[in-house]
Amino acid sequence: MEKLLFISIAVSLVALLTAFIKAVIVYKKPRGTKAMKKISSAIQEGASAFLRREYKVLFVVVVLVALLLAIFNTGYLSWVAVSFMVGAFFSGLAGFVGMKVATFTNARTACAAKKSLNAALKVAFGGGSVMGLSVVGLALLGISALAYIYILLFGSSKEIMQETLLPVLTGFSLGASSVALFARVGGGIYTKAADVGADLVGKVESNIPEDDARNPATIADNVGDNVGDVAGMGADLFESYSGAILSSLVIGATASMCSCTNGLNLVYLPLILAALGIAASILGTFAVKIGKRINPQLALNKGLYLASALFAIFAYPVIKAIAPKEFNFGEATYHYCGIYYAVLIGLICGILIGLITDYYTAEGKKHTNNIAENSKSGPATNIIAGLGVGMLSTMWPAIFIALAVVLSYKFSGLYGVAIAGLGMLSTTGVQLAVDAYGPIADNAGGIAQMTNMDPEVRQRTDKLDAVGNTTAAIGKGFAIGSAALTALALFEAYRVSVGIQVVNMANPFMMAGIFIGAMLPFLFSALAMDAVGKAAYDMVIEVRRQFKEIPGILEGKTAPDYKKCVDISTKSAIRKMVLPALIGIATPAIIGFVFGPLMLCGLIVGTTVSGVMLALFMANAGGAWDNAKKHIESLPGGKGTEQHKAAVIGDTVGDPFKDTAGPSLNVLMKLISIVALTIAPLLKLITPLLK
User: Fold this and answer.
1) What are phi and psi of 688, to 5 degrees?
2) Which of 359, 394, 504, 662 would be a feasible disulfide site paired with 616, CB 3.0-4.6 Å?
3) How many beta carbons lie within 10 A of that of residue 97, not counting itself?
4) What does the pLDDT look like over 1-36, one tens digit per residue?
5) CA–CA separation, 257 vs 513, rounded Å?
């Protein structure tokens, strides 16, 4: 049945080919005037410069970790280092490709907006589609190709699959997670330092519009949209997607040991389901069009829901054809229909989390309107209202996730929980395309503003940008929900791999691990928020200095020094991203080797539960603050008022919530689990020594 690997490899190559074709189509679109080309080139150069410096640091970290993995593992386990490097390389490549395409799509989107809203949407979403399809294509290709190579090297029996091949393959997810954490933290610090500095000095103090060419931080702000929301989000979902697949493979291998004929197909099934999801995503990207009764939001939803529907329809015959009719796991026997139900549960859970996120964060909805109304009495009440919305918004996603876990376990045991996570991420290709579309539209609006394009063009890009804010918030909710199920599946894979049969919650080591794990997201978030605060302070001082010391900037007679602001964001992000990322990598290893596997179990549980709630709170509060500001700006005479200034201050508080600390927690909780899973074979060996 290794031939099934060729199906997943072929589909991943089709995804990459489709991404390439879409990139060529976008690249052939006109870039507009000389001024538009100049601004676009400046954004592209700034983003490329940041990624070069970030990847230099990552190269050192990846090499050192790979050496440690090779040294401390013996025999076949030394191949974990190879998987780690491949995962890190593919993750970095996915982020680089997405960022590169996004930065050459922005001016083309602004130019297309001169023609029509639909033309602009096609270009922006085309650029986003390259990111989405590249991420899922590279992830599935990397896992499938490595699996095929390791089968040739080690064999493919059930015992070899469980004890050799899959433990080695988990290194791929570790590499992806490590790069994702650096990308999320570094990109988040960069983008929010620039954004906060640009807003506070530009909008609040100097009363100039957003993305005004007179603002020295505006280029850095637009660069940040790409390195944070494109490259960072791409790396985030790359490792979520990889983790969901690999956790399903590991648990599937355990189930196959207890199963009957064709039990090994439970290992291959996740790869085929991922391939099916990619095929559905490709078709979904072609459905995004604006009609007479379809606005940009509905057009994007049409593509996402079409992909979900196609996946749901064709998943059943695929599962029926590949999975055993019945399989045993533990003391229970499950039917192949239960696997299909688990897939549907994960898929529906993801959609519901997206809808509830939209309810709490979308412009014009009850909660954002309430924040906007509270802004009339100043920034304090704005912030209080936003915090309340963020806390309230955690309730329904937590209930949906809990129901998904319970129901998927009922239908297919632990394998069902892992498959539910994969089901939620099945349409990542089109979901990420929708997410990446947002910063492209935002950049297009900035270029339109900075080059003084026709007001109608700016109105069209603003419509796309407003939708982009909502899709970004939904994407963050989707990423958090998938992170919860993926982290839980990885936890179960770790528990099985390390040989812990029963998790005793009364054990003092378990309880200690839970407390430390619950604290970790707060420590991590504090470091990320502090980094943004310090970098934003430097940005504010620099923008104020330029307004004061360089005559003619505010009058539009002298060009600001954009490069100085870009350099401040770059240096701050590179310097401040290392400590939070290293904490995520080192903590589970220290806890596991010093205090034992059970305490590491507690660490994973505490980090996952605390991390999910904190990430939901921060992401939704930040999204609600942002769209409350957008709502005020859409009102006649709303810009420049005291109400607007209060909303801008609330938005600057929410920026590091939703774009730095919150999204980074997705990666942290999965990284903790994947580090634990990677070191599980070593922990299993040294546990008798610890006793």
Assistant:
1) -60, -35
2) 394
3) 24
4) 567 889 999 999 999 999 999 999 999 999 888 888
5) 30
What would the pLDDT profile of 497-509 be if each residue is shown by its tens digit? 787 877 777 889 9
Q: What is the DSSP letter of 507?
A: S
Helix residue ranges per DSSP H, 551-596: 562-576, 578-595
DSSP β-ladder status, 326-329 and 332-335: antiparallel
Q: How far is CA 346 from CA 270, 358, 406, 426, 605, in A?
A: 13, 19, 11, 9, 20
Lowest mean pLDDT among 161-170, 238-247, 453-462: 161-170
Task: Report how far residue 411's alpha carbon sits from residue 151's, in angstroms, rounded to the nearest whole number.
Answer: 30
Q: Which residues contact 675 (CB under 8 A, 6 or more apart)?
A: 174, 177, 585, 588, 589
Integer Cα distance of 543 and 533 in angstroms: 15
Tokens of residue 335, six digits: 């039917």
- DSSP H or E segment with residue 428: helix 428-450
Tens of pLDDT, residues 633-647:
878 887 878 898 899
How many residues are there in the chain? 691
Angle, helix 455-498 to helix 233-258, in steps of 10 degrees: 30
Determine the Cα–Cα distance for residues 21 and 5; give it in Å rounded to an integer.
Answer: 24
Closest residue by Cα to residue 142 from 86, 85, 198: 86
Q: What is the DSSP string of 277-317?
A: HHHHHHHHHTT----TT--HHHHHHHHHHHHHHHHHHHHHH
Contact between 8 and 144 (Cβ < 8 Å)? yes
Cα(120)–Cα(421) distance, integer angstroms: 34
CA distances from 356 to 107, 360, 397, 410, 474 (A): 33, 6, 7, 25, 8
Residue bearing tokens 């059970």: 598
Report the mean per-residue pLDDT for the chain: 85
The mean per-residue pLDDT over the stretch 652-659 comes to: 86
pTM for this prediction: 0.89
Query: Would you kindly state where each structural domain of the chain is located, as residue ranges?
Result: 3-690
- Listed as own residue / partner, the contacts of 454-457 with beta carbons closer than 8 Å and 24 or more positions apart are 454/114, 457/110, 457/113, 457/114
Question: For position 336, what pLDDT does the model report?
Answer: 87
pLDDT class of 690 with cuts at 50, 70, 90: very low
Of 182, 215, 172, residue with least CA distance to 59: 182
The DSSP string of 179-213 is: HHHHHHHHHHHHHHHHHHHHIIIIIIIS---TT-T
User: Do the Cβ atoms of 80 and 170 come closer than 8 Å?
Assistant: yes
**Do residues 109 and 461 lie in contact, with contact meaning Cβ atoms separated by under 8 Å?**
yes
What's the token pair of residue 312?
């749901």
pLDDT of res. 496: 77
pLDDT band at 330 (very low <50, low <70, confident <90, very high): low
Q: Please tell me the distance from the alpha carbon of residue 348 to that of residue 665, in angstroms, as a whole number.
A: 23
The answer on pLDDT for 691 being more than 50 is: no
What does the pLDDT average to over 535-547? 85
d(CA 208, CA 506): 59
Is the pLDDT score of 599 beyond 50? Answer: yes
